[in-house]
Design goal:
Helix content is 77%, strand content 0%. The chain is mainly alpha-helical and 438 residues long. The chain has one domain.
Length: 438
């Protein structure tokens, strides 16, 4: 093993140590990557090279879609579309066994068509769905577990910030990735909804004790369902535009953000505080994402220069592990990694190693994008980092302990893995629609 590879290994070890002591991943990757490039290139060359590389990388036209999709999501939230989606879903399925939980899952899928952030979905439905489920006899653990799990639909149902970043990192069409998430998203809804029914009917721990929800008359349900025209219009603008080939993902993001602004104004929900909160939240989230991408760019360049990336890839390929076994190991690896890193950090740190192996195995990168999206969402609900859970804790405060939140979310981890298994057994769920795109 030569000195360059040893330097790469030391860089990875140092990165892990810095992350363990709670330094933000973006700063950790930037500092270690910069130090590594100074070691390989010298101070003067590295100082000249790094800013140029970052400018060339982060100025890609596709990156404009990130803040635009985020802004679209915040505007739809302030327009009250989240609560509309939940009420309509509740009125139609709330009387079924586990109906309020199923309504929460369906409402998250509807909201996902107008936003690409699971954190936003979890925050919104913690306020709307958790209190109503609690009043109907759901334990707080079960109610919050449903919300944490259903929040994952916001990054699976298009548009999805996670899929957009995956597409940029792997040079895969973001438009096809968005479309690929539709059928797996529907499977996700179906599997989680079905799983809720035996939990509330037969489990001694989770069986409901409260009053059964009484649905309003059919005429009122039909009238209230009309409120969802705003979300479906946004979905038609964004997803329909991408699928038809009329707009690319960046143009669709601009169209979606503009459409969400007009809808919020039309509904008279976009006052100055809501507008300011939406803009500042978008700036904050975008800054975090771009800083992570900048750190990943510098750190991956350092690993490439060291030769560690090439040697690690070659070693994995030489093992000649069967594809299904490799995917299983990859799932275990990402679930464990998700206990310590957020979704974007996981992708930017691991994809440089994983992608060459998947290329050797002949994996469809559209399908793999959906696979990775589901996996990183598992990490968002597992301790100790589980960002979805922490967001819910910030909303619910003293109503439930952090430990109970994680226990509730843990119930659904095996159920999400069932969705993953279905995707592995039936890859056409993710590949059929993108293949039909113009």
């Amino acid at each position: 093993m030569n000195a360059d590879v040893i330097a790469g290994i030391m860089g990875v070890a140092l990165l892990l140590i810095i992350v363990i002591i709670r330094c933000p991943m973006s700063y950790a990757m930037l500092s270690v990557g910069t130090g590594g490039l100074i070691y390989f290139m010298g101070l003067d060359a590295a100082i000249t090279y790094i800013p140029t590389q970052l400018f060339n990388y982060l100025s890609k036209f596709t990156f404009i879609a990130v803040p635009l999709f985020l802004l679209m999501g915040y505007f739809t939230f302030h327009a009250g579309l989240t609560s509309d989606a939940y009420r309509v879903a509740r009125d139609w399925v709330g009387h079924l066994p586990g109906g309020l939980g199923i309504a929460t899952v369906i409402a998250n899928a509807i909201f996902g068509a107008a936003a690409g952030s699971s954190l936003a979905a979890c925050a919104a439905f913690s306020k709307i769905a958790v209190p109503e489920m609690a009043r109907s006899g759901y334990s707080m653990r079960l109610a919050t577990g449903i919300v944490a799990t259903a929040g994952g639909l916001a990054i699976l149902i298009p548009p999805s910030i996670i899929m957009l970043i995956y597409g940029i990192l792997t040079e895969t069409s973001p438009g096809k990735l968005f479309i690929a998430g539709i059928f797996p998203g529907l499977v996700y809804v179906l599997v989680v909804s079905i799983a809720i029914i035996p939990l509330v009917r037969f489990s001694s721990t989770w069986k409901l004790q409260g009053k059964v929800f009484t649905p309003p008359p059919l005429k009122q349900r039909l009238r209230d369902s009309y409120k969802l025209w705003t979300i479906f219009l946004l979905a038609l603008l964004v997803i329909g535009g991408i699928y038809s080939g009329l707009v690319d993902p960046t143009e669709a993001a601009a169209l979606g953000a503009f459409g969400a602004t007009l809808l919020a104004l039309f509904l008279r929900k976009l006052n100055w505080p809501a507008f300011k909160d939406s803009v500042f939240s978008t700036l904050q989230a975008s800054s975090m994402i771009f800083l992570l991408l900048a750190g990943a760019s510098v750190f991956s360049t350092f690993l490439t220069r060291s030769g560690l990336m090439a040697q690690a890839t070659t070693a994995i390929i030489k093992l000649d592990v069967p594809l299904y076994a490799l995917l299983g190991l990859l799932a275990i690896f990402y679930v464990i990694l998700g206990m310590f890193l957020d979704s974007i950090s996981m992708m930017v740190l691991t994809l440089p190693f994983v992608v060459p192996v998947m290329v050797d195995k002949g994996i469809d990168f559209i399908w793999f994008g959906v696979f990775i999206t589901i996996l990183v969402e598992v990490g968002a609900i597992t301790p100790p980092l589980g960002l979805n859970v922490y967001v819910m804790k910030s909303v619910l405060r003293d109503e439930i302990s952090l430990e109970d939140l994680f226990i509730g979310a843990a119930i659904f981890v095996p159920i999400i893995l069932v969705v993953l298994l279905i995707l592995i057994l039936f890859p056409e769920l993710a590949t059929w629609l993108p293949a039909k795109m113009t």
